[in-house]
Amino acid sequence: MCLINVHYNQHPTYKLIIVANRDEDYLRPTEAAHFWQDNPTILAGRDLLQMGTWLGISKNGRFAAVTNFRDPSEPAKPKSRGEIVTNFLSGDGTIAAFIEELRTNRDQYGGYNVLLWNGKEFFHYNNRLDEVNNIKEGTHSLSNYSLNTPWPKVEKAKLKLKDYASHQHELNMEDLFEMVADPEIAEDDRLPDTGVGLELERLLSSIFIKMPNYGTRNSTVILIDHHNKVTFVERTFWDGEFQFDMKFEFTIVE
Asked: What PANTHER family has UniProt attached to this entry (predicted)?
């Protein structure tokens, strides 16, 4: 269960601001963000179980991120969702063509949402709903149903980022990381019913999740300014405790 917050084309310094959390089993093997040895154009963390990724950016300015669609009744599927991000980052085709291929093969993957940006266009696709959204300028948030679904954590994080980015020309990394470090659990009357039971709905309702065997493993901030300079910082946690940061800076080469 993840959360991706986007402020797009509404800031005087940055055309794209991403503030995201990846939630995962603590024991799932993961490599911290790096430029991949087998594909040096990709900057991303890596899931060492399936060798894909949940969020990344390429040197030529393609960004992608995926979240699961929460449905505990869904059976296992043959393909890993993490390969969707990898395939987009390593490709050079249009977003429209990429989404058309996803639609053709949508039953091969478990339920997912994917965000796709190529420097000019920004789209969201959900395979369970077969839904395509052209993302317009403004602030958006994505968790585990669809884009801007009014779950408490989605609305809260979206409002935080919108308010901050609308009033700050110079962004502070610690301020952005603080937005997605919020452990507050939502009130019961605001919780969705996704089939996981009330207690788990409560635990998953916070922006930052900490459970006995599962929780927020990484927070990531990506800033892309109007001169195509990228600042990428990934913060790693274990059992809710800070471990280390990985920081990268480069300029997109189109």
From this structure: SER/THR-RICH PROTEIN T10 IN DGCR REGION, TRANSPORT AND GOLGI ORGANIZATION PROTEIN 2 HOMOLOG
Average pLDDT estimate for 103-130: 98
Tell me the CB-side half-sphere exposure of residue 13, using CA atoms within 13 A.
13
Overall number of domains in the chain: 1
Structure tokens at 31: 């490599």
Residue numbers of the domain that contains 106: 3-251
Q: 198-250, pLDDT tens digit by residue?
A: 999 999 999 999 999 999 999 999 999 999 999 999 999 999 999 999 999 99
Q: What is the 3-state secondary structure (H, E, C) of 22-57?
A: EEEECCCCEEEEEECCCCCCEEEEEECCCCCCCEEE
pTM of the model: 0.97
